[in-house]
Amino acid sequence: MSQQVVTRFAPSPTGYLHIGGARTALFNWLYARGRGGKFLLRIEDTDRARSTPEATQAILDGMTWLGLDHDGEAISQFQRADRHAEVARDLLAQGKAYKCFSTQDEIQAFRDAARAEGRSTLFHSPWRDSTPDQHPDAPYVIRIKAPRDGSTVIRDQVQGDVTIRNDQLDDMVLLRSDGTPVYMLAVAVDDHDMGVTHVIRGDDHLNNAARQMMIYTAMDWPLPVYAHIPLIHGPDGKKLSKRHGALGVEEYQHMGYPAAGMRNYLARLGWSHGDDEFFTDAQAREWFDLSGIGKSPARFDFKKLENLCGQHIAASEDAALLHELVGFLAATDQPALSDDKIILLEQGMYCLKERAKTFPELIDKAEFILTSRPVVPDEKAAALLDSVSRGILKELTPQLQNASWSREDLEAIAMQFAEDNSIKFGKLAGPLRAALAGRTATPSVFDMMLVLGRGETIARLTDAACENV
Predict the structure, then answer these.
(1) Residue 157, pLDDT score
(2) What three-state secondary structure class fits 128?
(3) CATH code of the domain made up of 379-466
(4) DSSP-derived 3-state class of residue 255
(5) Backbone angles phi, psi at 311, to 5 degrees
(6) Angle, alpha carbons 65-70-72 (nearest 5°)
(7) Domain boundaries in the chain?
(8) Are 270 and 26 in contact (CB under 8 A)?
């Protein structure tokens, strides 16, 4: 029986979930979920100055919005410091690590001399092969005994085989002189203890893999499968930064992008499945594989993001879309919707979601639902409600009053009215839009009538027709 796949996302809580981190989390989530495996979350909160409960919550909120659920409780790396130290002492007891009493000044002097002589500045501790009777009563760090000969090969599923000569690896510190574990040790121990089978992370961690593998090898632990994914660049080909726009996932939520569209776009950043651009979550879980990840950095493209988000809004179930719209309003501190507006929105979602790329665009199209009588037209709409237009509305309204309120009947009455009065339907549609929505850009006037219903439609037309000029 094959081993269950276990992946992990291990962010440092620095205030928000970065867009690059979100993609890493998504890749890990897709890989595990598509194989019936586990997706775990570890908060790497050993930097106590920067790790706050608020920063951790921001990461959790970002993952919740993206729909990336993790298995079990989130693990705090800081709280496992005793276990990390235990492994360092175990390696010391096995003779695979040693106590190093070299001071910072001595290490600096070694490096200065090496630089002056043109030698490698990689520090070789004089304490590597010392015996306990030679040890002074002084502070020390615990260093691992790095292999001196041969090479270390990282068999990476994205980068291919990456070979590092062992004489390039130093005897890495495992425990500092105050007894606290270093990051490299903590990561290796946590990944092993959590049963992580696949380490999928940014390629800025590639060199770390060789150092973490030293710990695995020394402890006789099975190595995980490594997959180091290229970073995300801006449209100009430079590493994604604030100058390119939003970096935090919550900023995209606040801009009104739907989570499904965001997941789809992030999945396509650096991974591909043939020529498929638009796909569902189910397809992403089924298709995602490490072999589809490219070696080159992906470029973030807002136009592609918007295009995909528009497709996801159009393809969404109306109730699910409404639920996310309500969440968007809450996240952006906008007033909550009344129950009657929510009912009308769900009824009208079919005509709102076409060609809307974001929730603000969808809300803009829904203005005819969200506004209340008396409808106050904006400047452009008010210009369409001149005395002639009001007269037209006054004549048309009684005819609509007796309609069966089906689209066919409403269209037939409006078209017949236009013909009888020798006007083009466009001449009639403008004042109708102004009366029903107070806007010039709206869904179809017949869609608005159907969603608003007979009573509200007639009332709004009557208001507009009777307005004092």
Answers:
(1) 98
(2) coil
(3) 1.10.10.350
(4) coil
(5) -65, -40
(6) 135
(7) 6-75+233-306, 79-186, 316-365, 379-466
(8) no
Q: Token digits for 274?
A: 């043939």
Distance, CA of 251 to CA of 454 (rounded, Å): 40
6-75+233-306: CATH topology? Rossmann fold (3.40.50)
Beta strands in 74-150 (DSSP E): 75-76, 97-100, 141-144
Annotated binding-site members for ATP: 242
Collapsed DSSP state (helix, strand, coil) of residue 395: helix
SS (HEC) of 75-95: EECHHHHHHHHHHHHHHHHCC
Q: Give me the pLDDT at residue 469, please.
A: 38
Q: What is the pLDDT of residue 90?
A: 98
Could you tell me which CATH number the domain at 79-186 has? 3.90.800.10
Q: How far apart are CA 19 and CA 232, in angstroms?
A: 9
**What token pair was written down for 460?**
């709004």
ω before 335 within 30° of 0 (cis)? Answer: no
Which sequence positions are flagged as catalytic? 242
271 secondary structure, DSSP code: B
Q: What pLDDT, in 10s, does the model give residues 127-138? A: 999 999 999 999
pLDDT at 215 (0 to 100):
98
CA dihedral 115, 120, 122, 128 (to 10 degrees): -110
**pTM for this one?**
0.92
Select from 374, 373, 368, 363 the least CA-distant residue to 433. 368
Q: Report d(CA 5, CA 69) in Å as an integer.
A: 16
Q: What is the dihedral angle through the alpha carbons of 290, 293, 294, 298, rounded to the nearest 10 degrees?
A: -150
- Mean pLDDT throughout 9-35? 94
